[in-house]
Amino acid sequence: MSFSTLYNRALTAAALLALGAASACTDTASKVRADSLAAELAAATTQRDSLQTAAQSAAADKDRALNQVVEATKFADQVDAELRQVRTLTSKVSVKKSDESGKTEAADAKKDILDRLSQMRQRLAARQAQVKAMMDTMVAMRADSGATATLMADLQTRLSNREKEIASFQEEVKLLKTQNAVLVAEKAVLTDTVKAMDVRENKVYYVVGTKRQLLADGIVTEEGGSRGLLIVKLGKTLVPSRTFDDGRFTMGDRRQVLTIALPRADRPYHIVSRHDVALVDVAKKEKDGSFRGESIKITDPAKFWAASKYLIIAEK
């Protein structure tokens, strides 16, 4: 096999490995990025749900506070009404009657006023505590509402950015799928090319026949020799023809064609082509290079077929 052939095959194999590695790296990077985006999106969604829950809770607290304001307003109206009733009682306290009934009536009116004022003070104290708690809650709610609004705005921005990234990533995935499809197609073509090159590089042809058959099929020709008695040439040598008809040969793969059968074990054969007879194992070898047996066994296929991919064996 020539250096250029080996070099081309090495380049083709390297291209296949590079394509496979590029496809694997691309798929791994895409998977890692997809997992990262999915995790960030899940975390952002969870935070958004938590903030929405907090906002709903704050809205409920706000409604309760408003209800308390309404109740406090109503209570203030009630206090005003009761104070007006107390003012009407003051006239009874200042009566100028000297009889016992007038004194009793004035004492009762005074006691009634004091009792009502005491009750109103107690109710006012309780309501003041409620209003103070309500105000503290409203202050906290305003602070929480501001923080929540800031978080919600930041979250919305993050979600919007993630949505854009996911859309961009989807486009990248589509592009990667297209590129992978092209790589797969190119890899298939390269694989077929390598297979075809491999088959072509290892394809060999062999033929075993009599001298007459080989001459008739145009596989060999005769060269040299001298004329004896001006009739025939003596000492002619069989040599391979310059061109061959592949159909006259048996085709095989040199990695598999290790044994070639000989038609007749009782007849001597010799190799006409340039193949080295020392690289075959037979039942019997002669000093002139001929051999006998039922078959020949190729001991070193690489060296044996390096001489030529056409093996010609002739019966002597």
Description:
This protein has helices at 3-93, 100-202, 211-216, 301-306, and strands at residues 203-210, 220-223, 226-228, 232-234, 237-240, 250-253, 259-261, 269-271, 280-281, 284-285, 291-292, 295-298, 310-315. It is an alpha+beta fold and 316 residues long. It has 2 domains: 3-199; 217-315, no CATH class. A 4-stranded mixed β-sheet has the order 6-1-13-8. Strands 7-12-9 form a 3-stranded antiparallel β-sheet, with no helix packed on it. A two-stranded antiparallel ribbon has the order 2-5. The protein is rod-shaped, with a radius of gyration of 56 Å. The two termini are 31 Å apart.
Structure at a glance:
It contains four helices and 13 strands.
Strand content: 15-25%
Shape: rod-shaped
State the low-pLDDT regions, or none: none
Helical segment tally? 4
Instruction: Tell me the helix content.
Output: 55-70%
**Class by SSE composition:** alpha+beta
Q: Secondary-structure element order, as H and E? A: HHEHEEEEEEEEEEEHE
Task: Measure the end-to-end span.
Answer: 31 Å
What is the count of distinct domains? 2
What is the residue-averaged pLDDT?
77
Largest sheet descriptor: 4 strands, mixed
The count of DSSP E runs of length 2 or more, i.e. the number of strands, is: 13
Computed CA radius of gyration, to the nearest angstrom? 56 Å
Strand order of the largest sheet: 6-1-13-8
